[in-house]
Amino acid sequence: NGKYTVSLIEGDGIGTEISKAVKDIYHAAKVPIDWEVVDVTPTLVNGKTTIPDSAIESINRNKVALKGPLATPIGKGHVSMNLTLRRTFNLFANVRPCKSVVGYKTPYENVDTLLIRENTEGEYSGIEHTVVPGVVQSIKLITREASERVIRYAYEYALSRGMKKVLVVHKASIMKVSDGLFLEVARELAKEYPSIDLSVELIDNTCLRMVQDPALYRDVVMVMPNLYGDILSDLASGLIGGLGLTPSGNMGDEVSIFEAVHGSAPDIAGKGLANPTALLLSSVMMLRHMGLNDNATNIEQAVFGTIASGPENRTKDLKGTATTSHFAEQIIKRLK
Ligand code: IPM
Ligand code: MN
């Protein structure tokens, strides 16, 4: 029934089960998408982890991919495939919304944060070495180019959604040169966006204030260097019920890959315990990106309706008793 083709990386561990839930729900919702399942099993070429050409071609052709969790191979020479994908397709902005799920109570109410993480460099540049035994260096690489494109993305994101505030989260009090450059770029770009109010905040203070009162971060687009975004997005996720609930989009100029932020959870793989919500909500972000807004709303409301309908229809991570497939069936029943 496909008007569109999307590359699907099912992922390791629980990836198969949560991808199946997505495929079943999309089929039932009559979403006009054909899945092109791609294999991204890494190969080592000259000591560098590479993605199979067929996967690169599929994603370049379709421009949009949905991705389940990939295990990071342990051992010398292997880098995370998650990171390799981000870098290969130059997915410079990682958009991570986090919104309270009505019907799933946590100590926090009305959380609605939006975090944009620089996605290609910083501490994630992977430049590390031993100087002499017992002394190592990890390079935190910050460039004007990557800072500018992600900060511009944040301003544009705010503009296009009628949001009036951009907040840069940083630690330039200590990282004077690297975070200092990031801040400098944000201030320069602010001149091009006079309708948007730029503020800045130290990362430790953001953590403190966000757990005290997440409402302070409503209607704000937060943007920050890579590692801060990694950490703060988990914190935000914890406020609403965990990584089983939070989606993300890795955005580039050409290609976008939407992915669940959680890991492959090998301990529960194959047991029907996995929560597909994060992957489903990532796919909802994907649908909106593709302009399939009605399909997005349909699936999103069915997911939230199912979660709210009680613990018998929720997975274990949400204090429920439902299996992955029971949860998916309930979502299907709620589709319009
Ligand atoms: C995330 C994950 C990844 C990261 C891991 C799996 C490499 O934690 O997407 O937040 O650190 O970016
Ligand atoms: Mn993370």
UniProtKB/TrEMBL annotation:
Q: What is this protein called?
A: Isocitrate dehydrogenase [NAD] subunit 2, mitochondrial
InterPro entries noted in UniProt: IsoCit/isopropylmalate_DH_CS, Isocitrate_DH_NAD, IsoPropMal-DH-like_dom
Quick one: a GO cellular component term? isocitrate dehydrogenase complex (NAD+)
Which GO terms are recorded in the biological process aspect for this UniProt protein?
Answer: isocitrate metabolic process; tricarboxylic acid cycle
Name the needed cofactors: Mn(2+); Mg(2+)
SUPFAM superfamilies found in the cross-reference section: Isocitrate/Isopropylmalate dehydrogenase-like (SSF53659)
The Isopropylmalate dehydrogenase-like domain, residue ranges: 5-331
**What organism is this sequence from?**
Yarrowia lipolytica (strain CLIB 122 / E 150)
Subunit comment: Octamer of two non-identical subunits IDH1 and IDH2.
Q: Which family does it belong to?
A: Belongs to the isocitrate and isopropylmalate dehydrogenases family.
Note the superkingdom of the native organism: Eukaryota
UniProt EC number: 1.1.1.41
List the residue ranges forming a coiled coil, or say none: none
Reactions performed catalytically: D-threo-isocitrate + NAD(+) = 2-oxoglutarate + CO2 + NADH
Identify the PROSITE patterns for this entry: IDH_IMDH
This protein's UniProt keywords: Magnesium, Metal-binding, NAD, Oxidoreductase, Transit peptide
Give an example GO molecular function. magnesium ion binding
